[in-house]
Amino acid sequence: MASASRLLPPAPIPSVPTFRHASFGAAPRICRLAIPSFRCRASAATAAVGAAAAAPLVLEDRASAVALREFVTLDELRAAVSLRVRTFYEYARETVGAEDHRKALAEREYEALQNRISGKMINFQRVSCINGTVPLLPSLMSAEELCSACKFVEDGEERIVVSSLDLNQCLWLPDELTGKRPGVNESSHTRAYLSNVCVAKELQRNGLGSALVDKSKGLARQWGITDLYVHVAINNEAAQRLYMKCGFVYESEEPAWKARHLGRPRRLLLWLDMRN
Question: Can you supply one Gene Ontology CC term for this chain's record (predicted)?
Answer without folding.
Answer: chloroplast
